Amino acid sequence: MTDITVRHNADRERFEILDAGRVIGKAVYKAYDGGASPQRIFYHTVINEEYGGQGLAGQLATVALDETAAEGTAIVPVCPFIKKFIGKHPEYAANTVAVTPAHLEFLDDALSARTRG
User: What would the pLDDT profile of 60-76 be if each residue is shown by its tens digit?
Assistant: First the structure.
Protein backbone atom coordinates (compact mmCIF):
# COMPACT_ATOMS: atom_id res chain seq x y z
CA MET A 1 0.00 0.00 0.00
CA THR A 2 1.39 3.31 -0.98
CA ASP A 3 -1.15 6.09 -1.19
CA ILE A 4 -4.59 5.03 0.10
CA THR A 5 -7.43 7.50 -0.48
CA VAL A 6 -11.23 7.35 -0.44
CA ARG A 7 -13.45 9.32 -2.78
CA HIS A 8 -17.16 9.65 -3.47
CA ASN A 9 -17.95 8.81 -7.08
CA ALA A 10 -21.52 10.13 -7.11
CA ASP A 11 -21.96 9.47 -10.85
CA ARG A 12 -21.48 5.75 -10.19
CA GLU A 13 -23.30 5.83 -6.83
CA ARG A 14 -20.38 4.49 -4.85
CA PHE A 15 -17.54 5.34 -2.55
CA GLU A 16 -14.20 4.08 -3.81
CA ILE A 17 -10.98 3.29 -2.00
CA LEU A 18 -7.86 3.73 -4.10
CA ASP A 19 -4.23 2.74 -3.86
CA ALA A 20 -2.08 5.21 -5.81
CA GLY A 21 -5.11 6.18 -7.91
CA ARG A 22 -6.26 2.62 -8.69
CA VAL A 23 -9.69 1.55 -7.37
CA ILE A 24 -9.18 -1.38 -5.01
CA GLY A 25 -12.60 -1.44 -3.36
CA LYS A 26 -16.02 0.14 -3.24
CA ALA A 27 -19.12 0.68 -1.13
CA VAL A 28 -22.01 0.79 -3.58
CA TYR A 29 -25.39 2.41 -2.92
CA LYS A 30 -28.61 3.51 -4.57
CA ALA A 31 -30.16 6.88 -3.77
CA TYR A 32 -33.71 6.49 -2.46
CA ASP A 33 -36.27 9.24 -2.02
CA GLY A 34 -39.22 7.26 -0.66
CA GLY A 35 -38.67 8.26 2.94
CA ALA A 36 -39.12 11.39 5.01
CA SER A 37 -35.63 12.49 3.96
CA PRO A 38 -33.13 11.49 1.28
CA GLN A 39 -31.72 8.04 1.88
CA ARG A 40 -28.75 6.06 0.63
CA ILE A 41 -29.25 2.29 0.43
CA PHE A 42 -25.82 0.69 0.85
CA TYR A 43 -26.05 -2.77 -0.72
CA HIS A 44 -22.53 -3.99 -1.54
CA THR A 45 -19.05 -3.44 -0.14
CA VAL A 46 -15.97 -5.16 -1.52
CA ILE A 47 -12.19 -4.87 -1.27
CA ASN A 48 -9.91 -6.54 -3.82
CA GLU A 49 -8.72 -9.87 -2.44
CA GLU A 50 -5.03 -8.93 -2.35
CA TYR A 51 -5.87 -6.01 -0.03
CA GLY A 52 -7.97 -8.06 2.39
CA GLY A 53 -7.32 -8.08 6.13
CA GLN A 54 -5.78 -4.61 6.25
CA GLY A 55 -8.74 -2.69 7.65
CA LEU A 56 -9.49 -0.99 4.35
CA ALA A 57 -13.18 -1.93 4.30
CA GLY A 58 -13.57 -0.20 7.67
CA GLN A 59 -11.74 2.86 6.39
CA LEU A 60 -14.00 2.93 3.34
CA ALA A 61 -17.15 2.49 5.45
CA THR A 62 -16.10 5.27 7.82
CA VAL A 63 -15.72 7.81 5.01
CA ALA A 64 -18.90 6.66 3.25
CA LEU A 65 -21.03 6.83 6.39
CA ASP A 66 -19.47 10.05 7.67
CA GLU A 67 -20.09 11.83 4.38
CA THR A 68 -23.61 10.43 4.08
CA ALA A 69 -24.50 11.57 7.60
CA ALA A 70 -22.87 15.00 7.07
CA GLU A 71 -25.08 15.53 4.01
CA GLY A 72 -28.18 14.84 6.10
CA THR A 73 -28.86 11.69 4.10
CA ALA A 74 -30.13 8.66 6.00
CA ILE A 75 -28.16 5.40 5.87
CA VAL A 76 -30.04 2.23 4.90
CA PRO A 77 -27.75 -0.75 5.67
CA VAL A 78 -28.68 -3.60 3.32
CA CYS A 79 -25.04 -4.64 2.81
CA PRO A 80 -24.03 -7.15 5.51
CA PHE A 81 -20.66 -5.45 6.05
CA ILE A 82 -22.20 -1.98 6.47
CA LYS A 83 -24.87 -3.40 8.79
CA LYS A 84 -22.23 -5.10 10.96
CA PHE A 85 -20.02 -1.98 10.91
CA ILE A 86 -22.91 0.19 12.13
CA GLY A 87 -23.58 -2.34 14.89
CA LYS A 88 -20.02 -1.84 16.13
CA HIS A 89 -20.15 1.96 15.71
CA PRO A 90 -23.28 3.28 17.45
CA GLU A 91 -22.39 6.86 16.50
CA TYR A 92 -24.16 6.14 13.17
CA ALA A 93 -27.42 4.96 14.77
CA ALA A 94 -29.07 8.38 14.64
CA ASN A 95 -28.45 8.55 10.88
CA THR A 96 -29.61 5.00 10.15
CA VAL A 97 -33.09 3.85 9.18
CA ALA A 98 -34.30 0.26 9.30
CA VAL A 99 -34.45 -1.66 6.04
CA THR A 100 -38.06 -2.06 4.89
CA PRO A 101 -39.68 -4.17 2.17
CA ALA A 102 -40.04 -0.94 0.14
CA HIS A 103 -36.25 -0.45 0.23
CA LEU A 104 -35.65 -4.00 -0.93
CA GLU A 105 -38.22 -3.77 -3.71
CA PHE A 106 -36.76 -0.46 -4.90
CA LEU A 107 -33.25 -1.94 -4.84
CA ASP A 108 -34.33 -5.09 -6.68
CA ASP A 109 -36.09 -3.02 -9.36
CA ALA A 110 -33.11 -0.65 -9.74
CA LEU A 111 -30.57 -3.46 -10.04
CA SER A 112 -32.78 -5.44 -12.42
CA ALA A 113 -33.19 -2.39 -14.66
CA ARG A 114 -29.42 -1.90 -14.69
CA THR A 115 -28.77 -5.46 -15.88
CA ARG A 116 -31.47 -5.17 -18.56
CA GLY A 117 -30.23 -1.76 -19.76
Answer: 999 999 999 999 999 99
